[in-house]
Design brief:
The protein contains seven helices and no strands. The protein has 90 residues and is mostly helical.
C-alpha cells in the first residue's frame, strides 16, 4: 500500500480524484485502507496496476494473497531451510 500512497501523493492534487475514480474507488477510501491496513478488492487492484502502468502492482497491493487471487502471477518463493537449521531443530 505504501507504493500506492507514494504514487498518489506524486500526482497533482487536481488529478488524484480522477485517478481514484478511474480505478473504481475514491481517494479517501484508498487512504483509509492504507491507514488501517485494509486491503483493496481485486478489481480495484487490477485497475490500479493498469492506471499506474505497472508502477504499483497487484503484488504491492495484496502481498499476502495475490497468487491466490491471480493464479497467473507466480507465488512468492519461500527459502529452503538449510541443513544446519534442521539439525538444530532435532
Amino acid at each position: 500500500m505504501k507504493k500506492l500512497i507514494q504514487y498518489l501523493n506524486g500526482l497533482p492534487v487536481n488529478d488524484r480524484r480522477g485517478f481514484a475514480q478511474n480505478c473504481g474507488t475514491t481517494e479517501g477510501y484508498i487512504r483509509k485502507c492504507a491507514s488501517v491496513g485494509d486491503v483493496l478488492n481485486a478489481t480495484v487492484c487490477t485497475s490500479i496496476e493498469r492506471a499506474t502502468q505497472g508502477q504499483v502492482t497487484r503484488q504491492h497491493l495484496r502481498p499476502n494473497d495475490y497468487w491466490l487471487i491471480w493464479p497467473d502471477l507466480p507465488a512468492p518463493q519461500i527459502p529452503a531451510v538449510g541443513r544446519d537449521v534442521e539439525k538444530e531443530l532435532e
